[in-house]
Amino acid sequence: MFLHDTDKAQAVLFFGKEGISKELLYPELEALLEGFVPLEEWSNTTQKAAYIEFNHQFVVTAAVFFSMAFDAKGAVDSGWNLPLLDMARTTAKGPDLGAGPIRIACASQCPIAYFKDWLWDPDMDPEGPQFKQIKRSLKRNRLGVHFRSTRTSDDAVGGFSAQETQRLEAHLSQHFSKQYEKALREQMSQLLEGQRLRIASMVSDRDQAVQTMRTDFERRIEELQKQLEESEIARADLDKRNQELRLTIDGQVQKIEGLREYYEHKLRRLQGSDSETLETVRARLESEMQNRMRSATGELNELLKMKEVELQYRVEHEEQLQQEIFRLRREHQESLVSSGDQFLENLSRKGVNFVTYQPGAGHITIPYSEMSLFLENPPAFTAAYCGVSEKQYLAWLRHYQAPVCNALDDNGEMCCANLHRVTSPTDFVVGESDVCDKHQRTQRPGKLKAI
Ligand SMILES: [Zn+2]
């Protein structure tokens, strides 16, 4: 590329792991952005780069440090749209690389905040790695940039005369631009052909879609029209029926009104006579009920009287029977005694002794003369034998058979605590020998269980 020595060259340098990995002139970058020359080796990566401007002495005057993302095909990400040239017009100053401080745009000095994320910060030392690499790259000049002197043509350059140099330049320029142009044209024509085909197929697709849609719509409209007609017919039918029904209803209403009037009239006329009838019926029912109640009560009273008489008779009869029983029992006893007397007398006379065992008294020999006394009441006989009252003897006997406390506790239940058995009726004290120690202390008269 040939430039005048007053011009500034524009280039983009990509930074790889081992220094500069790719160098492009600005027009080449534009071709890359247009997608003509995808970089497959960079598909799905983000690369760090610097856009630089340098003068005819190959000294940097402006730099923009940016990054660039590539898609799966190696084309620049469609969202990338940094205005590099504008950003290089920034007023921010960077290090002096030989032509005064450079204009610089990077992440920490971004003139347009919106693009900050697409920028990065280099080492600001002029001898730092990035600036050093940039300087080395410009010195090698792989970009093939040549500056043409604007001074008088008779100055010789590298041994060639000015005229020769110019001719050589023109020749080379023509040669390179022809090659570049050819490649570009081929790519363009391929692209255009592809696009044409795509457009043609899209147009045909669209035509087809439009046709389908139109058919659909026409069919739909037809259907809707049919539906509309049908619903209009239905509505007319309904209107007609409605009209008929309304007439019928009107007729019914009139009929009902007439009936109501008739019945109201009848009701009014009936009300007067009906109320009299009701009173009569009520009075009749009441007297009837009273009569019935009276007769029922009379019957019941008579029945009651009869029952009372019957009861009285039964009581009397029972008394008679009791007396009968008593008399018979005495007779029976007397006959027993008289018959027994003879028998016993016989036994006694033949030397037989009558001995009985009674608790508290042991063996008692009963003389024949006292036999009837004994037979009449053995406990009383034994009590007398022991020299205690019958009541005392019976209380002792009870204790003797079950020596437990007789006292009642607060719940009215018998204490039943075990007691020392008193073996002799004479030693037995009621209310003392037949209660436990606890109840002897708390015992109060009247709380003893009746014996
Ligand atoms: Zn007790």
Strand content: 5-15%
Mean pLDDT: 86
Radius of gyration, taken over Cα atoms and rounded to an integer in Å: 73 Å
Strand order of the largest sheet: 3-2-4-5-7-6
Class based on secondary structure composition and strand pairing: alpha+beta
Ligand kinds: zinc ion
Counting DSSP E segments of at least 2 residues, the number of strands comes to 10
- Main sheet properties: 6 strands, mixed
**Span between N and C termini?**
149 Å
H and E order: EEEHEEHEEHEHEEHHHH
Helical stretch count? 8
Described by the principal axes of the CA atoms, the overall outline is: elongated
Helix content: 40-55%
Which segments are poorly predicted (pLDDT under 50) over 5 or more consecutive residues?
Answer: 153-157, 446-451
Question: Can you walk through the features of this model?
Answer:
- This protein is of the alpha+beta class.
- Among the domains are: 2-150, no CATH class; 355-442, no CATH class.
- Helix content is 55%, strand content 13%.
- It is built from eight helices and ten strands.
- The strands form three sheets. The protein has a six-stranded mixed β-sheet.
- A hairpin with a 3-residue loop joins strand 9 (354-358) and strand 10 (362-366).
- Helix 6 (378-386) packs across helix 7 (390-401).
- The protein is elongated.
- The model is unreliable at 153-157 and 446-451 (pLDDT under 50).
- The structure holds zinc ion.
Task: Summarize the topology.
Layout (H helix, E strand, L loop, with lengths): L1 E3 L4 E8 L2 E7 H9 L11 E9 L5 E10 L14 H4 L5 E4 L4 E5 L23 H12 L5 E3 L13 H188 L4 E5 L3 E5 L4 H6 L1 H9 L3 H12 L35 H6 L9
Helix pairs in contact: 6-7
